[in-house]
Amino acid sequence: MGKQSSPRRRADNEAQAVLRNLRISPQKLNLVAAMIRGMDANKAIATLSFSRRRIANDVKKVLQSAIANAENNHSLDVDRLYVKEAHVGKGLVMKRFKARARGRGARILKPFSHLTIIVSEKEEQA
Predict the structure, then answer these.
(1) How many domains does the chain have?
(2) Residues 73-107: pLDDT tens digits?
(3) I want to staple 96 with a disulfide (CB 3.0 to 4.6 A). Which of 13, 79, 91, 108 is the partner?
(4) 115 bridge partner residues
(5) Which residues, other chains included, contact 34 with Cβ-Cβ below 8 Å and sequence gap of 6+?
(6) What pLDDT band is residue 126 in, cutting at 50, 70 and 90?
(7) Burial of 40 (0-12, 13-18, 19+ CB in 10 A)
(8) By residue range, what is the domain housing residue 78?
(9) Is residue 9 part of a domain?
(10) Residue 46 within a domain
């Protein structure tokens, strides 16, 4: 016996990849995620390859992982994939202190983020 498996949460033409605890603020990561929302998968990879932002390489890896999941796990056509969703969530926040003048201390916040990328296959147009 055992527990029944839960039904698939994504549609049959979708695949996703998640990267958790990425050491960057969600606000900065969202700027990069916004660049690729709605783009074709190949064009999004090219855009991230030439982006000058530090985090673009990590976002590119997650996108490539989502594409690989679509191809290998769900048998989707790679050439028809596009970025359906790219959303960013808040993770934990490390709190540090920096010594300041007159014996005071200033709080430094080092935020982490979660990135989820969902790729989907375009429907054929008649």
Answers:
(1) 1
(2) 999 999 999 999 999 999 999 999 999 999 999 99
(3) 108
(4) 19, 88
(5) 86
(6) low
(7) middle
(8) 16-121
(9) no
(10) yes
pLDDT in tens, 2-60: 889 888 888 889 999 999 999 999 999 999 999 999 999 999 999 999 999 999 999 99
The answer to the question of residue 4 being in a domain is no
φ/ψ (deg, to 5) at 85 = -140, 145
Task: Tell if the pTM clears 0.85, that is, is over it.
Answer: yes
Q: Which residues of 67-86 are buried (b: 16+ CB within 10 A; e: fewer)?
A: bebbeeebebeeeebbbbeb
How far, in Å, are 13, 56, 57, 117 from residue 22 at the CA level? 27, 12, 12, 14
Whichever domain contains 117, its CATH number is: 3.90.470.10
